Description:
Elements: E1 5-8, H1 18-27, E2 33-38, H2 50-57, E3 64-69, H3 77-83, E4 87-90, H4 98-107, E5 111-116, E6 134-138, H5 154-166, E7 172-176, H6 183-190, E8 194-197, H7 199-203, H8 209-218
Parallel strand pairs: 1-8, 2-3, 3-4, 4-5, 5-6, 6-7, 7-8
Helix pairs in contact: 2-3
This protein binds D-xylitol-5-phosphate and zinc ion.
D-xylitol-5-phosphate (DX5) binds near residues 36, 197 and 200.
Amino acid sequence: MQKIKISPSILSADFSQLSNEIKKLEEAGADMIHVDVMDGHFVPNLTIGPPVIKSLRQHTNLPFDVHLMISPVHKYIKNFAEAGSDIITFHPEATENINETINLIKSLNKKVGISLNPNTSVSIIEKFLDKINLVLVMSVHPGFGGQEFMPEVLKKIEELNEIKNKKKLSFDIEVDGGINFENSKKVKSAGANILVSGTTIFKDNNGNIKKNIDALRTG
Ligand code: DX5
Ligand code: ZN
């Protein structure tokens, strides 16, 4: 199996201690930091924006894996790039022109991700797969941490993995939402190589972050 990366979502961290929480994640072997940005419009919840990312940037060298759940997204891309994002992921429904948003992120020398909601099909982004770095497959309806994994998305992960192999493409397949020690195996064998997790990493095993990251990676 390919190398598995773990991207802990700071949505489940203690927001009053964010820089310490990120240090703990780094020490525990996280590969990147998943930052969930919500606008109360594209999704029914509000979180953080560029100023918080900017102030966290000086506390870690880990890549910031920034998941934008905001609409319209295009006009904010530059702010997120300048704040110190490394991977910028958007939802296709949140832009008027998918191609232009991809090109803008690339022009800012950032990695491009596109996220698929549970009800969004692969066909919508198929023609862009050779241009992007990552597909973020949502295994919950975006908006909140702590929701239950939707097993029907396993088929979508397999479908993406098939296209990837057939066309010899190199995009990462990242899965986000409700990942736990049971479904992580299925997600990996379907073809995912990056797992996002908030609740499992911060809350399981009495909050033993290292144990939880290791178990998600190798379990
Ligand atoms: C949901 C977010 C996820 C979520 C992951 O909208 O994109 O990143 O917070 O958290 P858990 O692992 O708790 O589902
Ligand atoms: Zn996310």
